């Protein structure tokens, strides 16, 4: 868990587990693998167990929810930065089952779920998902046009309060115009270059193009960073910090009906 995070588009991070399996080019320089290895954890690959956590870890979001309610200010929580919530792994399956009731118990937290396994989302949603939990933002990672074309259509088939993509690390140009139009549109696009030792370069024109596509469609655009040795380096795009957030579609519709707020 993390009371604070360096991930600019969220307020806190909560991990249901540590560990994963690399599945596409965006995974090549995975910071989560580097960090877990630094801590002596062997949790990567198809056969290794994932690191899981106890009751104290799982209780932290309950406190965050109380704090947010008391402050009358919603908090964004990214799950999970150190694993993929939808990985096909027995340890992840068991921990994911604990995530859904936790989300329902924390209506003052907006949970941001991001995955590269878009094909697994629909079959692993809770039975009461319905039109989407009003406090879940569902997203997929795309690193180039190939994975945008594969993953985004699967995301758009799902009901969700917010649908978003993380175009990070940006490894090639993308045209998102077809995914930014109503009625089944994306609500939010995060764009960022790769960070860390050995980072792969990002052409700034890729970011400009996506920014312009979002502006034309009225979709929120968040420029996280340029490709650089460390995260949060080069946060300006053409001399401006552009960090917009979406306005959830379904939250206003479902709050009263669900009784969650």
CATH topology: TIM Barrel
Structural class label = alpha/beta
Estimate what percentage of residues fall within beta strands.
5-15%
CATH-scheme architecture: Alpha-Beta Barrel
Low-confidence stretches: 252-261
Biggest sheet layout: 7 strands, parallel
CATH class: Alpha Beta
Number of strands: 7
Supply the number of structural domains. Answer: 1
Oligomer: single chain
Nearest-integer average pLDDT: 92
Strand order of the largest sheet: 1-2-3-4-5-6-7
Q: Determine the number of helices (DSSP H or I, runs of at least 4 residues).
A: 6
Distance between the termini: 24 Å
Q: Measured on Cα atoms, how large is the radius of gyration? A: 18 Å
What does the model show?
This protein is α/β, with parallel strands linked by helices and 261 residues long. The protein has one domain (12-258): TIM Barrel (Alpha-Beta Barrel), CATH 3.20.20. It has six helices and seven strands. Strands 1-2-3-4-5-6-7 form a seven-stranded parallel β-sheet. Strand 6, helix 5 (204-217) and strand 7 (220-225) form a beta-alpha-beta unit. Mean pLDDT is 92; it is low at 252-261.
Keywords:
seven-stranded parallel sheet, 6 helices, globular, 7 strands, alpha/beta, 261 residues, 29% helix, disordered C terminus, TIM Barrel
Blueprint (SSEs and pairs):
Layout: E1 12-13, H1 31-38, H2 55-71, E2 75-79, H3 90-104, E3 109-115, E4 136-141, H4 145-156, E5 162-167, E6 188-192, H5 204-217, E7 220-225, H6 250-258
Parallel strand pairs: 1-2, 2-3, 3-4, 4-5, 5-6, 6-7
Brief summary of the model shown:
Helices cover 29% and strands 14% of the residues.
């Amino acid at each position: 868990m993390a009371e604070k995070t360096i991930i600019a588009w969220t307020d806190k991070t909560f991990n249901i587990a540590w560990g994963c399996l690399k599945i596409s080019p965006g995974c090549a320089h995975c910071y989560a693998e580097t960090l877990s290895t630094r801590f002596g954890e062997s949790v990567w690959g198809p056969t290794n167990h994932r690191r899981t956590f106890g009751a104290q870890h799982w209780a932290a979001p309950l406190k965050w929810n109380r704090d947010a309610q008391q402050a009358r200010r919603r908090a964004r929580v990214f799950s999970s930065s150190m694993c993929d919530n939808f990985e096909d792994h027995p340890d992840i399956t068991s921990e994911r089952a604990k995530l859904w009731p936790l989300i329902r118990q924390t209506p003052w937290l907006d949970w941001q779920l991001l995955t590269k396994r878009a094909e697994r989302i629909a079959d692993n949603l809770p039975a009461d998902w319905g039109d989407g939990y009003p406090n879940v933002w569902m997203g997929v990672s795309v690193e180039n046009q190939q994975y945008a074309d594969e993953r985004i259509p699967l995301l758009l088939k799902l009901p969700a309060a917010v649908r978003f993509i993380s175009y990070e690390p940006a490894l090639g140009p993308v045209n998102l115009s077809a995914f930014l139009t109503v009625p089944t549109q994306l609500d939010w696009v995060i764009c960022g270059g790769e960070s860390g030792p050995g980072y792969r370069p990002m052409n700034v024109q890729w970011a400009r193009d996506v920014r312009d596509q979002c502006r034309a469609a009225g979709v929120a655009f968040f420029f996280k960073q340029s490709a650089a040795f460390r995260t949060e380096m080069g946060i300006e795009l053409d001399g401006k910090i552009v960090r917009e957030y979406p306005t959830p579609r379904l939250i206003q519709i479902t709050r009263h009906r669900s009784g969650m707020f």
